[in-house]
Amino acid sequence: MLENFFKLKKNGTSVRTELVAGLTTFMTMVYILALNPTILSASGMDKGSILTATAVASAIACFAMALLSNKPFALSAGLGLNAYFAYTVCGQMGFSWQVALTAVLVEGLIFIVLSVTNVREAIFNAIPASLKTAVGVGIGFFITFIGLQNAGIIVDSPTLVGLFNLKAALVSGTIHTQGVAVMLALFGTLMIAYMFIKGIKGYMLWGILITWGLGMVLQLIGFYVPNPKAGFYSVIPSAVFSMPSSMASTMFQFDFNFMVSHIGDFIVILFAFLFVDIFDTIGTVIGCAEKSGMLDEHGKLPEIKGILLADAVGTTIGACLGTSTITTFVESSSGISEGGRTGLTAVTTGVLFLLALFFSPLFLTIPSFATAPALMFVGFLMMQQVTNINWQDLTKAIPAFVTITMMGFAYSISDGIAFGFITYTILHLCTGKKNELSPLMYVLSVVFILKYFLV
């Protein structure tokens, strides 16, 4: 039955490979179940309701991805979008979380229309091949940076970012918290690299589990000392089973009266959600598809409509349940790197999200220093695509470079795409290559420029 539905042989995969890929993807993104309630609760929403809504919406979106596209992409509440929801819309702007949820709902409905009418697909196909490759490489850079931060290897400093200082940790006494986390993350990264070189199946998942297990041993012998105030928690589960919280306080809590009476303010809120989500999703899909060889000879992705529609459906359902924008996760690349090629990977991840509701004490104990090595190694795998960029054609190489660097340094997939588009269009116009530009490239470049002036 699984073979007939997911076409495993046609996609060169197996049930075992897909299950391992789904589990790997879940392990690298389960942190969202802890982080999303923490962020959204700043808006006044109930933490327990948010956690349940996030898990259920993520599962439904993953199932939709499998049903509509048969692709291995996993979805959950997008980071950055949840921060905009809680800290900007509900914080700086002072609007209620019900207003923000209404904006997310409308965003999801608009995206359903755009996906059905091929507008989002047209945007995807309008991106030149060199920029598609650059987006994949840029996401590799971006996800490596996230991994380094999660591991505590790269930290805040007077130079914006800096390297973890081992000597300072010894003097300050943080060697038994952040120091241990850094050492375990480095160990985990080297172990994943070794197993990859040796061709060991499930290398990324084994890396996460072994690093986590070693962390438990170090905590038991007193070498790793949890310090929750500093963000270093116990890596030993305090329990295994728990009942999920009710979503009653967040389900269908919309404020349509505000949307009608303050249409100007609502459009500003809505546009930011729309802009970031559409290009984050397109960027993530391009990056993961490029890495896994899913793009055809024309640089197009078959079943792209189903992928984008699943993403839109996830956002709409998430708003109804009571969580911020559900979007395709860049961590999907970890499962794809394990060989995931079909919707069975997404289904596996979705099932695990539902199980996490009942085993949340176990899943929420997975430390970031155990998952960070997987993210960093995925970054390496995605960066390999940089050789496919024609560095001799400067009108394409320079925009590719801008895309890659801005994605990491601006800490934003959508900003990396925006700067890459603008640079590509301007250079082609100024060098007499305007015949290589599609009409949509002009439109999108103008939209990107206006975005920085208006939002």
UniProtKB/TrEMBL annotation:
GO MF term set: purine nucleobase transmembrane transporter activity
Membrane-spanning ranges: 20-42, 48-68, 95-114, 134-155, 175-196, 203-225, 266-287, 307-330, 342-363, 398-425, 437-454
Keywords assigned by UniProt, alphabetized: Cell membrane, Membrane, Transmembrane, Transmembrane helix, Transport
InterPro entries: Azg-like, Azg-like_bact_archaea, NCS2
The organism of origin for this protein: Bulleidia extructa W1219
Superkingdom of this protein's organism: Bacteria
Classification lineage: Bacteria, Bacillati, Bacillota, Erysipelotrichia, Erysipelotrichales
Membrane topology: Multi-pass membrane protein
Intracellular or extracellular location(s): Cell membrane
Name the UniProt record assigns to this protein: Putative permease
Family: Belongs to the nucleobase:cation symporter-2 (NCS2) (TC 2.A.40) family. Azg-like subfamily.
A GO cellular component annotation in the UniProt record: plasma membrane
